[in-house]
């Protein structure tokens, strides 16, 4: 405490004259105090079948340990007519930073609607998928912080599913889980949809083992898989829960279902 | 005290270290808001059968200093929309001017229907998202309460990141931790909104304001409360907390001067 009572000028510090006080800031980078992203939790999942595609997502919306709301959809119909997207055949699911997700949805939706207005025919899923990749890549250096999954039916009427990273890399897949519980759900899907680590019974041991060949699953089986995946994820991940929203895209349109999940 | 008049009234370098002259700069890159300065604390709101109740206290804090004790943070937009502001007060005042000009423009325009709560929430969330994308955020957490296009109760939030969500009950800031669990006890889901009357909702929100005053150090016992129904907006700006009971304080151990 001696220094508190010493009247002597400090050693080495700036002097007491006003003239010595620098008026310019020290050069160098300054840290920004504002971080423009947050994680709103939740998980999404998509599986494509022979003549359908299912997209699913939980409806919990979180920020840290807070639950903002128990019903905030992560699944959006893209295209169709009007604000209700009547007659749409494409579904987008987004998980990650919800504000970016909403902005991305809005942009893709207007693009797909403008496409129909300008070309007189609805946009194909493959075209929409590529366009979504371009939208994401256009913001390569300030990305939409979301994992997007796009689902629909291709030109042959088969289920089509595309998954994306935040900067637009994309790939058509049979199934994909994204978001907070992706690491919990994806291995389950690998095993149950693509039959990974499954072998034909009685095909032998060691190198004789015949891998079980994956084939498109019927719709009721896929729906059950989705429900199982989410009820399990809810048990092990705190950011997943409250409700399960599913959209099933078929030849006849988009069917939407909601089933409650645990709210704890 | 020393004999250098230049240093009088300044923090002493030998005690506090050299002054950080980066705060003193006159030139340099353009700076955007890095942190809020004068802030308002929680806003709480709940839907009920035929409307929404929203409340916030009248305090604007400067750090831990209770700086302005008569700041109205609940703003009526028109006969069916009210906005509650948490966070930076100067940004709130900017948004207030913005909403004023929007209202004037709307009233001069030829459109028949006035903006409803849903419209205003969309507008404000786009403003907030645009500003965050410009790295120049409006440091607020807003609750937009009122009636939607079908005259049904509407309650949603928008924050400095442009994040939006809607729920039967909402609370910002400290209220998200303290008030939201109390509100959810009565209104757990959208369906139960129908079982809540106006009086019940008002009582519930007032109870939350009381709990917040007990435990939020940056709160005040003077608050504003608004009820939005089809009949219009009923806004009271000089309410005082009633029926406080600090009896529970006796039971609190481990803080202050008592040993055990």
TrEMBL record, chain A:
GO terms of biological process kind: proteolysis involved in protein catabolic process
Highest taxon, organism lineage: Eukaryota
Keywords on record: Cytoplasm, Nucleus, Proteasome
InterPro entries (UniProt xref): Ntn_hydrolases_N, Proteasome_sua/b, Proteasome_suB-type
Primary localisation category: nucleus
The UniProt record lists the keyword Nucleus: yes
Cell compartments where the protein resides: Nucleus
One Pfam family matching this protein: Proteasome
GO CC annotations, alphabetized: cytoplasm; nucleus; proteasome core complex
Keyword Cytoplasm annotated: yes
Region (Disordered): 1-23
The protein, known as: Proteasome subunit beta type-1
UniProt organism field: Zopfia rhizophila CBS 207.26
UniProtKB/TrEMBL annotation, chain B:
Pfam families for the chain: Proteasome (PF00227)
Keywords (A to Z) from UniProt: Cytoplasm, Nucleus, Proteasome
Protein name: Proteasome subunit beta
Family: Belongs to the peptidase T1B family.
Record-linked PANTHER family: METALLOPROTEASE TLDD, PROTEASOME SUBUNIT BETA
BP GO terms, sorted: proteolysis involved in protein catabolic process
UniProt function note: Non-catalytic component of the proteasome.
Chief place of localization: cytoplasm
Organism (species): Zopfia rhizophila CBS 207.26
Cell location: Cytoplasm; Nucleus
SUPFAM superfamilies: N-terminal nucleophile aminohydrolases (Ntn hydrolases)
Gene3D superfamilies registered for this protein in UniProt: Glutamine Phosphoribosylpyrophosphate, subunit 1, domain 1 (3.60.20.10)
GO CC annotation, single: nucleus
CDD domains: proteasome_beta_type_4 (cd03760)
Keyword Nucleus appears in the UniProt entry: yes
Leader sequence residues: none
């Amino acid at each position: 405490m001696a220094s508190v009572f010493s009247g002597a000028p400090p050693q080495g510090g700036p002097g007491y004259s006003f003239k010595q006080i620098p008026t310019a800031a020290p050069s160098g980078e300054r840290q920004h105090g504002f971080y423009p992203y947050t994680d709103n939790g939740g998980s999404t999942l998509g599986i494509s079948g022979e003549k359908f595609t299912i997209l699913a997502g939980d409806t919990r919306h979180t920020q840290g340990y807070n639950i903002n709301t128990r019903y905030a959809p992560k699944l959006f119909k893209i295209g169709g007519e009007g604000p209700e997207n009547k007659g749409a055949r494409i579904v987008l699911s987004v998980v990650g930073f919800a504000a970016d997700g909403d902005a991305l949805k809005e942009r893709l939706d207007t693009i797909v609607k403008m496409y129909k207005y300008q070309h007189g025919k609805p946009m194909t899923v493959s075209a929409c998928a590529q366009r979504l990749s371009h939208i994401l890549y256009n913001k390569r250096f300030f990305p939409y912080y979301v994992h997007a999954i796009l689902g629909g039916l291709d030109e042959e009427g088969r289920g089509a599913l595309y998954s994306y990273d935040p900067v637009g890399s994309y790939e058509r897949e049979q199934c994909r889980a994204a978001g907070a519980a992706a690491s919990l759900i994806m291995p389950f899907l690998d095993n149950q949809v693509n039959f990974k680590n499954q072998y034909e019974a009685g095909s032998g041991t060691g190198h004789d083992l015949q891998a079980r060949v994956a084939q498109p699953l019927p719709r009721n089986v896929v729906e059950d898989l989705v429900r199982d995946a989410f009820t399990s994820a809810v048990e092990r991940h705190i950011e997943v829960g409250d409700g399960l929203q599913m959209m099933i895209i078929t030849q006849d349109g988009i069917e939407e279902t909601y089933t409650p999940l645990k709210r704890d | 005290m020393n004999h250098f008049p230049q240093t009088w009234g300044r923090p002493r370098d030998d005690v506090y270290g050299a002054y950080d002259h980066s705060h003193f700069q006159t030139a340099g890159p353009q700076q955007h808001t890095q942190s809020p300065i004068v802030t308002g604390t929680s806003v709480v709101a709940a839907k009920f059968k035929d409307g929404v109740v929203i409340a916030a206290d009248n305090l604007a804090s400067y750090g831990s200093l209770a700086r302005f004790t008569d700041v109205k943070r609940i703003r009526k937009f028109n006969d069916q929309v009210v906005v509650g502001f948490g966070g930076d007060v100067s940004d709130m005042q900017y948004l207030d001017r913005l909403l004023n000009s929007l209202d004037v423009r709307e009233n001069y325009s030829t459109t028949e229907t006035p903006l409803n709560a849903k419209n205003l929430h969309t507008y404000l969330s786009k403003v907030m998202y645009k500003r965050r994308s410009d790295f120049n955020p409006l440091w607020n957490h807003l609750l937009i309460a009122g009636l939607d296009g079908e005259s049904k109760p509407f309650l949603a939030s928008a924050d400095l990141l442009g994040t939006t969500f809607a729920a039967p009950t909402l609370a910002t800031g400290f209220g998200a931790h303290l008030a939201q669990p109390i509100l959810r006890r009565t209104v757990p889901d959208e369906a139960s909104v129908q079982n809540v009357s106006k009086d019940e909702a008002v009582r519930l929100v007032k109870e939350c304001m009381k709990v917040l005053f007990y435990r939020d150090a940056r709160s005040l016992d003077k608050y504003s409360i608004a009820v939005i129904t089809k009949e219009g907006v009923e806004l009271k700006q000089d309410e005082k907390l009633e029926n406080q009971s600090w009896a529970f304080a006796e039971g609190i151990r481990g803080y202050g001067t008592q040993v055990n």
